Inverse folding.
């Protein structure tokens, strides 16, 4: 009986899907019509986190390229970077979110362009003079601005929302026009968005806010300013009001949990009390995805919580020592609230207590570039900000040259991308895919990864139309296993190399679960790898390393090891139907050179030994959850 | 102490040197007829309104009478110093001043370009200049079977399977997460998923039959092209937004470049490099 009902429900959904696709989506402004496929057939690649000269810090760091150049670059055009070199992507992006800081948007540029005589505040006068001195002074001024932000000593006149209102309105209006002009449904999607730079004493609680809609709706708001806020509620209220007022849709993406000192994924509510079901519901609804990797480090997992995962700790060097602004050291007890895998586990525990999982989110990667250039590729990396655009000096420079942040620029990752399984390249389809978490993250390479979870997948499914079967009999990444299954859940997993990048080493399933005693656990399963029946037979639970073909003298590697594609059907050997659990897939590439290794060849450098020249890039999928009935 | 001693001591004082130098400058410049425009500072209603407005922006209230007087005093002081500094040529060789002036000039040129709107004829000319850039990619529909990394073994398998496929039999393929069938795909779509090499390989395949193997960034594929669309010449109505974006970006760059070369013509630039 239950089966019949499920089937009926499935048929209904499918019908709804199909009738939805027959309708041609007509974009605003009489632009091209876009046809949606019946189910997602293609991954769209994008960046949900890019800053232009309109961001207070980006301008101070020396970025002179605005939103228009950012969009042209993302579409594959050549532009001149702020430091004067030509910049072009090897492959264009499918979509882009320009997420300039809402707080003080355009303020630094406005200060720079102001007549000096109009500046009365001595601190602002100092920054003005420093910025006009040249690039070094400008970096210094920006360092001081960030410190002032941490210490709450930003001059009121610098970021006075009332005073800035007309500037922000006209800037936001121009910005929306530019975004609309570059949004071309079917070819390239340009989203409206901004970054909500919420901080508590320099602890990072930033969110990127993305709209599904065009200027007709988004013009009803201006980017929200987090000044004076310590909690996220104001942003969620803003989002509620926007949706209610316009009928539009908006989502928020937390990022850099790694420098939040445990505040991003708290076990309690923000005041330290037990998290309520209502709070958990609101968080899960407003923040369906999290940015797991970017230039300022990778937030997947930390060896402190995952000592048995030999691949945990990628891109954590330097980022696990202190909060974002470096003014408060990170204590070991802060780490669990700062990393995604632990958040997924905490979510299960909170769900066990309240019935709602606040951290049931999908994952994407993005750059957080402050150069207007989205460049997560190692051999074409333009750096975190314009002070560290390509040069012989940048590999050994500080993270902000001339400012002692305690972090080195080589700790920057050339990472990452947001991969979205959508039914078309349009705002609506990509946004909706983000809402249902059918998305994944990579640290830069464009690997294609698909996962379906269900109860009856068998190896033989891979011989037929397994994607269609995946949608019909299972759920894709981001979903929850359908209730009523028997036996252990099984997963159809297929990963494919980036056609212009390195082969794959292995595919892993990361499982997290909660036991009867209310303890959370994790385990990493190697489920398929290259030469698994040959030279790399598993021994003692570990598989031999894939090897290394890198030639550092030329910063090249060979695809003579690893595999172009790895596919399998995997069933959880330790499944317990009483235990709530999640499963996500991690795909590792064979070792390749880091951006520093490419720099070393390009500029003929001998770099100090602490600078890593090799790494294994990776993809992380959104999880599939299991909830006991 | 004699008067002579006093004079000698005074002559060693830096302050006296400074005053004497100032006097010299004054004597030298005072020979010029005073220009009323240069030597007259008028604080009119517009100036005061501007000062009061800025004060209001910063403090969110009107300045008091004393504060307004102070603002005016300050402004006059600025003007006096500024004009004197210009007379003394203190703006010369100051990088900050030079950059600021340059930026203002560039801004003026671009602002002019931003207010213009292109005519259809101008946009059409842009298309005609580079039709390939705006042309709709010829769409292609095809089926593909992926066989794995390029190796002698895979090539042998490909040959055997090609025979079977041409006999209408089905053959196994590796389960990659890319569709087996593509309909009306653009070159850009295909290149994004298979790499550029594959897109080129598709170009010369006959329609309607299985052929290959074709190499991609992933390995080898057998392919059957089912339909090949014709390349359509670009129509302005379809690509207007893109052309206009390009026009606008080019117009701003051109305006800046033109303004610069126009000004540059009035100069004789001599570059003397050390031998």
């Amino acid at each position: 009986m239950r089966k019949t009902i499920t089937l009926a429900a499935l048929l209904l959904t499918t019908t709804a899907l199909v009738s939805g696709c027959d309708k041609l989506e007509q974009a605003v402004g009489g632009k091209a019509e876009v046809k949606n496929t019946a189910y997602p057939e293609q991954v769209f690649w994008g960046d949900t986190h890019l800053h232009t000269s309109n961001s207070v810090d980006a301008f101070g760091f020396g970025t002179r390229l605005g939103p228009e150049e950012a969009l042209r670059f993302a579409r594959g055009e050549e532009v001149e970077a702020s430091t004067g070199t030509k910049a072009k992507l090897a492959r264009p992006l499918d979509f882009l979110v320009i997420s300039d800081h809402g707080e003080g948007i355009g303020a630094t540029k406005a200060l720079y362009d102001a007549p000096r005589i109009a500046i009365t505040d001595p601190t602002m006068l100092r920054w003005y003079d420093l910025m006009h001195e040249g690039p070094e002074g400008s970096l210094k001024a920006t360092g001081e601005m960030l410190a002032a932000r941490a210490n709450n000593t930003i001059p009121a006149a610098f970021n006075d929302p009332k005073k800035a209102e007309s500037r922000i309105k006209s800037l936001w209006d121009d910005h929306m026009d530019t975004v609309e002009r570059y949004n071309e449904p079917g070819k390239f999607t340009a989203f409206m968005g901004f970054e909500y730079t919420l901080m508590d004493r320099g602890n990072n609680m930033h969110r990127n806010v993305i709209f599904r809609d065009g200027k007709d709706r988004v013009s009803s708001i201006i980017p929200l300013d987090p000044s004076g806020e310590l909690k996220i509620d104001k942003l969620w209220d803003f989002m509620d009001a926007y949706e209610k007022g316009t009928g539009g849709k908006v989502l928020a993406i937390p990022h850099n949990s790694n420098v939040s000192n445990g505040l991003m994924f708290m076990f309690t509510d923000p005041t330290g009390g037990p998290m309520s079901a209502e709070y958990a519901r609101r968080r899960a609804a407003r923040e369906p995805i999290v940015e797991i990797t970017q230039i300022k480090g990778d937030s997947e997992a930390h060896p402190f919580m995952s000592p048995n995962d030999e691949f945990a700790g990628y891109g954590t060097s330097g980022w696990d020592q202190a909060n974002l602004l470096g003014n408060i050291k990170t204590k070991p007890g802060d780490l669990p609230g700062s990393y995604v895998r632990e958040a997924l586990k905490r979510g299960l525990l909170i769900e066990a207590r309240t019935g709602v999982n606040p951290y049931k989110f999908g994952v994407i990667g993005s750059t957080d570039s402050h150069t207007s250039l989205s460049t997560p590729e190692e051999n074409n990396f333009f750096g975190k900000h314009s002070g560290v655009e390509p040069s012989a000096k940048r590999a050994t420079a500080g993270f902000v040259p001339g400012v002692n942040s305690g972090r080195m620029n080589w700790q920057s990752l050339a990472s990452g991308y947001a991969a979205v399984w959508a039914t078309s390249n349009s705002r609506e389809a990509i946004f909706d895919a983000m809402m249902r978490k059918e998305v994944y993250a990579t640290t830069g390479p464009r690997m294609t990864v698909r996962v379906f979870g269900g109860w009856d997948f068998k190896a033989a499914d891979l011989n037929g139309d397994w994607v269609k079967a995946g949608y019909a009999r299972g759920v894709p990444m981001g979903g929850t296993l359908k209730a009523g299954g028997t036996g252990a859940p099984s997963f159809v997993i297929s990963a494919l190399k980036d056609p212009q990048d390195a082969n794959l080493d292995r595919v892993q399933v990361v499982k997290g679960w909660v036991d009867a005693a209310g303890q959370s656990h994790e385990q990493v399963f190697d489920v398929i790898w290259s030469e698994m029946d040959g030279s790399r037979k598993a021994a003692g639970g570990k598989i031999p390393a894939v090897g290394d073909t890198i030639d550092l003298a030329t910063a090249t590697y060979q695809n003579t090891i690893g595999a172009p594609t790895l596919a399998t059907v995997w069933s959880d050997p330790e499944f317990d139907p009483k235990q709530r659990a999640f499963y996500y897939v991690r795909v590792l590439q064979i070792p390749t050179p880091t951006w520093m290794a490419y720099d070393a060849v390009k500029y003929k450098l001998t770099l100090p030994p602490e600078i890593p020249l090799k790494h294994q890039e990776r993809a992380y999928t959104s999880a599939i959850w299991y909830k006991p009935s | 102490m004699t008067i002579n001693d006093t004079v000698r001591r005074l002559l060693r004082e830096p302050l006296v040197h400074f005053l004497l130098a100032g006097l010299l400058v004054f004597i030298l410049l005072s020979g010029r007829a005073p220009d009323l425009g240069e030597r007259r500072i008028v604080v009119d209603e517009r100036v005061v309104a501007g000062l009061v407005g800025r004060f209001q922006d910063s403090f969110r209230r009107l300045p008091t009478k004393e504060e307004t007087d102070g603002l005016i005093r300050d402004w006059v002081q600025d003007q006096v110093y500024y004009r004197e500094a210009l007379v003394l040529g203190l703006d010369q060789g100051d990088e900050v001043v030079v950059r600021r002036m340059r930026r203002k000039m560039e801004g003026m040129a671009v602002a002019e370009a931003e207010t213009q709107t292109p005519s259809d004829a101008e946009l059409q000319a842009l298309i005609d200049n580079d039709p390939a850039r705006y042309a709709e990619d010829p769409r292609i529909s095809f089926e593909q079977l992926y066989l794995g990394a390029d190796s002698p073994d895979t090539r042998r398998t490909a040959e055997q399977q090609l025979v079977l496929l041409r006999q209408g039999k089905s053959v196994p393929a590796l389960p990659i997460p890319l569709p087996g069938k593509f309909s009306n795909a653009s070159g850009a779509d295909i290149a994004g998923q298979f790499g550029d090499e594959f897109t080129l390989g598709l170009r010369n395949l006959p329609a309607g039959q299985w052929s290959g193997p074709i190499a991609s960034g992933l390995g080898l594929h057998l392919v059957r092209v089912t339909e090949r669309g014709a390349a359509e010449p670009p129509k302005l109505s379809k690509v207007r937004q893109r052309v206009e974006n390009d026009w606008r970006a080019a117009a701003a760059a051109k305006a800046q470049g033109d303004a610069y070369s126009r000004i540059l013509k009035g100069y004789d630039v001599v570059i003397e490099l050390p031998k």
